[in-house]
Amino acid sequence: MSHSGWRMKKVTLILTVALMAALASAEGDSTRKRSMSLTDCVQEALLRNLDVQIERINPQVSREELRGSYAGYDPTFRVAGEHRYQLSGGGFDPSIQFNIPPTEGEFDTLSAGLSGGLLPWGTTYDIAASVTESVSTFTTNRSDTSRGSVGITLSQPLLKNFLIDGTRLRISVSKNRLNYSEMGLRVRIMDVVTRVEKAYYDLIAARENVKVQEKALQLAEQLLSENKKRVEVGTMAPLDEKQAESQVAGSRADLLSTQQVLSAAENALRALINDNYRDYRELLIEPVGQLAAPAQQFNLQQSWGKGLAQRPEYLQAKLNVEQSELNYKFDRNQLMPDLSLTGSYGHGAGGVAVQEFSDALEDFRTGRNPAYAYGARLSIPLGNRAARSNYRASKLAVEQIKLALKRTEQGILVEIDNQITAARVSYERVTARRESRLYSEAALDAERKKLENGKSTSFVVLQLQKDLTAARSAEIGALADYNKALADLARSEGSTLERRAINLQVQ
Predict the structure, then answer these.
(1) Using CA atoms in the order 388, 390, 393, 398, what is the torsion angle rounded to 10 degrees?
(2) pLDDT digits (tens, 9 = 90+) for 94-129
(3) Closest by CA position to 375, among listed 337, 332, 339, 402
(4) Among 393, 375, 376, 374, which residue's Cα sits nearest to residue 337?
(5) What angle do CA 7, 221, 211 make, to 5 degrees?
């Protein structure tokens, strides 16, 4: 290529770069920038992440179901009123040769009460009160009487349904499921926080890799410029210039790839910390700080202790065992005979009738004409196949769910062991990658000096530039992997919220 042709190509390249910079500047005017620390991103995610918002509803649903389970203690209030008319026809009685006149009667009845009531210890009760006024007419005689009564009936189971019944089982299970759903929310929040943390590290790494590729492109262009001068003065072969041009083109391609990775990392973090991607699409998140490799002491036994004490999945598995044992306790109780003490008390029924409703209601207050009864009731189902089958099935279910708990425990121990190993190896890899990068920088500097003195070739320098770029990218990747390994270890231990100083209170 002639010197004038190269100058024209150079001018065209400068104009193209200037145009791209102008477009980027115009686009940047509409882009919102926001510096966000990892803590900022986590707080945004706790407020706006859709997975967290969805999971947060489950404890509310469980709480309503728990309230509904107490409905078994709600009695039914009943009130009724009735007016009844009755006319009995008279007739002739031949035995006494007498015409019997018809009888006319009217009856007004008002009743109220509570039925189906249940107390927390299994006692059932029924309260009833009624007032009846009767008006009857026979020939010229008119009778107007009123009667009132009130009473309560109780039944207390002594065997079946004594320690536990259907209502108490539903309440206990609902409490258990409420705790389970709260643990589920904790699981979801820990998962989201871990994902945000890892996405944040990926974003920092992607931004650093873009800088590395920009530096690689700058080095490649600098070498190309130097080689062109050497070719012009005749101290270097044109092939070396072509190799340098190839390196520049490859570096541009690598830069575009890292920019694409950066865009994907930004989108991944945006999707985690908001519930309206359209609004966040133009938000440019600028991470605060750089990737570091803080040394950390690992203790397998302590991590195991944390995992079995704090890991919400393990606590959920224990709640499943508790629920299964509640069902087993109920089914075992249902094998027993139905033995109940019964009793009733009331007053006002019978005795002397009065004329007015008010007089009958007075019987409620004074307690005249009391009556009571007590006794026992025994019911033994013959065969009782359904109860026996339910008992055996629930017993097997307890055994199965305990094995599932043991499996969950073992899985957590293995996972923590693997995560500690991964964190240790990642830390050691950071040190190795840093040393590799330092050696690559030193080797490139030495080889460039040799090239300047004519004791090396452009090919060797280009290769060392590639090695340095790879070493820098590898070091960034190792730093990101180590930080992500620490996040995964905290998740395995169940200490994610504690690590990020998050106080979770489910209301």
Answers:
(1) -110
(2) 666 566 667 788 888 888 999 888 999 899 999 998
(3) 339
(4) 376
(5) 135
Residue 376 β-bridge partners: 341
**Token pair 């190509």 is at which residue?**
9
CATH number of 29-65+170-324+398-499: 1.20.1600.10
CB atoms within 10 A of CB 338: 16
Q: Cα-Cα-Cα-Cα dihedral of 404, 408, 410, 414, to 10°?
A: 150
Residues with Cβ within 8 Å of 183's Cβ and at least 6 positions away in sequence, in order, are 312, 313, 315, 316, 319
Q: Which two tokens stand for residue 354?
A: 């009065």
Distances in Å between the Cα of 163 and the Cα atoms of 71, 119, 167, 326, 410 are 19, 12, 11, 12, 35
Which residues, at least 6 apart from 475, have a Cβ–Cβ distance to it below 8 Å? 430, 433, 434, 436, 437
**pLDDT grade for 355, boundaries at 50, 70 and 90:** low
All residues at 6 or more sequence positions from 102 whose CB lies less than 8 Å from its CB, including other chains: 87, 88, 89, 90
Ranges of H-type helices in 238-311 = 238-272, 277-280, 300-310
The tokens of 215 are what?
A: 């530096």
According to the model, what pLDDT value does residue 104 have? 80
Q: Which amino acid is at 174?
A: S
Give the span between the Cα atoms of 11 and 5, in whole angstroms. 10
Q: Domain coordinates of the chain in residue numbers?
A: 29-65+170-324+398-499, 76-119+123-160+339-379
Q: Please determine, for residue 25, whether its predicted confidence score (pLDDT) is greater than 60.
A: no
Alpha helices, DSSP H only, in 342-457? 357-366, 385-452
pLDDT in tens, 415-433: 999 999 999 999 999 999 9
Dihedral, CA of residue 427, residue 433, residue 434 and residue 437, to nearest 10? -170
